[in-house]
Amino acid sequence: MKLIKILVALMATMAVAPSQVKAAPDPDFHIYLCIGQSNMEGNASVEPLDRQNVPERFKVMATSNFSNPARRIGEWYVAVPPLVRENTGLTPMDYFGRTMVGNLPENVKVGVVPVAIGGCRIEHLDKDFDPATLDKEADWFRNYMKEYDNRPYARLIECAKKAQQEGVIKGILLHQGESNNGDAQWCAKVKKVYDDILSDLGLEPGSIPLLAGEVVASSEGGVCGGMNAIIRQLPKTLPAAKVVTSANLAQKGDGLHFTAHAYRVLGCRYATEMLATMGITDPDVSYSEDIPFVPVPEPSEGDYVLDFKYFSPKIWADGSFDEATGKFQAGQWGFGGWEFDTPLDLSGYKYLVAELKEDDKDNAELRVFDTASYWEKSYEGKFNGGKLIVAELHGMMKNLETGIVALNTSEIYRIGFWGHGKNPIHIKHVYATNKNPYDISGIQETPDQPEHDGCVYDLMGCKVAESVATAELSPGLYVAGGKKFIVKH
């Protein structure tokens, strides 16, 4: 009888065993751990082109919970930005991943596992960081750290171990240094973080590369550019490290953070260095280093255009507005724009376009409110010294104390411009549209047989050259012979 029971138990075990066996990690799923501070977190606005044509083979593992789009810690998603946390921006990871999958066999997937905190020191990413010391930090920084339960290293390892169940960790991307500017011990501190990661993940010491990106260069106005001399010494302390140059990459005016164009280029440079470790030395990059196309959008039929005659310059602080020229002089830390007694429904539109006539010199922001009170949180889009914001209405977020939530675009109470009040803001137009201004499909790169006099005009109708053949044109859109064409560089 006892023998029969043993045989029955053995047969039951054999019956269920196959379903309980976990699949081995896929060697063709390449995983990269991405750590750092604000430039890895993403500090430039995600533009419509950054959400287009993201390869299905490029994945991101959520290391914090998102509400829109819905993401959960430890789960994989197609790597549509933002990648790090809700309401963060474009990062080097975005175009790193695109370039990697573009140069690897079609059976290979690439996944990134990001843990990055704006303003963090390398010590905050260390295994031995003491969360009790956060009492001395600013409220905004503590809020960032809360996303990782105040232990970013532990969250990284937790998610990395889960990633190892499905793929193989191939490298680490690091962008950090501004908060350790001038720290002579930085290289040793990075090596400790690297060694601890490999040890805790069961990887052989020195077995995977670490790519460290330079901060904004001094020649580009970087306030921490001197740190690059220290970053370049990292391979001497950590032989597995390689340095990714930031040469000729512009910053957005604060001396610390790259422009969106520079993030894309930097991501391609990370990928180029990583591919070189695989023997791929002449890769196709997914984004050109040429100065990017900047559209000059104009509203068209069906768009909702905000009329200057209803612009109020005194919604907050005592400002002034010239309806004829669009010149808005904000009061000190003031706000002016359009207010609606009955909420405006923009849910039927895809984009909100705000364009200035001149580059912003007042640290201006485009703000959109879905509540009646001016003191409630709003969507905040920064011009960053430029003159164009193309915001995706269905991607607008506002940062509440309880978390980041989507803006209700069916009930808009207020749209306008916040400024310091030191310099005027020259507004060209603000309008809602379903046409993506960055979509250049159907536009020729050079005009075919221009008709009439062959003169070249800009989109304002001003003649800029006598003919296409003799024109020396800046990047942008032009018209010749009744046809639009684009000059990329």
Task: Note down, in words, how this protein is organized.
It is a single chain. The protein is an alpha+beta fold. It contains nine helices and 26 strands. It has helices spanning 2-20, 38-41, 92-103, 139-146, 152-164, 186-200, 227-231, 234-237, 260-276; strands spanning 29-36, 58-61, 66-67, 70-71, 76-78, 109-116, 168-175, 210-213, 241-244, 304-305, 312-316, 320-322, 327-329, 334-344, 351-356, 365-369, 379-382, 388-392, 397-400, 403-406, 412-419, 425-433, 456-457, 463-465, 476-480, 483-487. The strands form six sheets. Strands 5-2-6-1-7-8-9 form a seven-stranded mixed β-sheet, sandwiched between helices. Helix 6 (186-200) links the parallel strand 7 and strand 8 (210-213). The longest helix is centred in the N-terminal third of the chain and has 19 residues, at 2-20. It is globular, with a radius of gyration of 26 Å. The termini are far apart. The model is unreliable at 6-10, 12-19 and 447-452 (pLDDT under 50).
Please summarize what this structure is.
By secondary structure, the chain is an alpha+beta fold.
Strand content: 25-35%
Over the alpha carbons, how many angstroms does the gyration radius reach? 26 Å
* Order of strands in the sheet with most strands: 5-2-6-1-7-8-9
Structural class: alpha+beta
Secondary structure: number of strands: 26
How much helix is in the residues?
Answer: 10-25%
How far apart are the termini? Answer: 86 Å
The number of helical segments is 9
- Overall pLDDT, averaged? 87
Low-confidence stretches: 6-10, 12-19, 447-452
- Quick one: biggest sheet? 7 strands, mixed
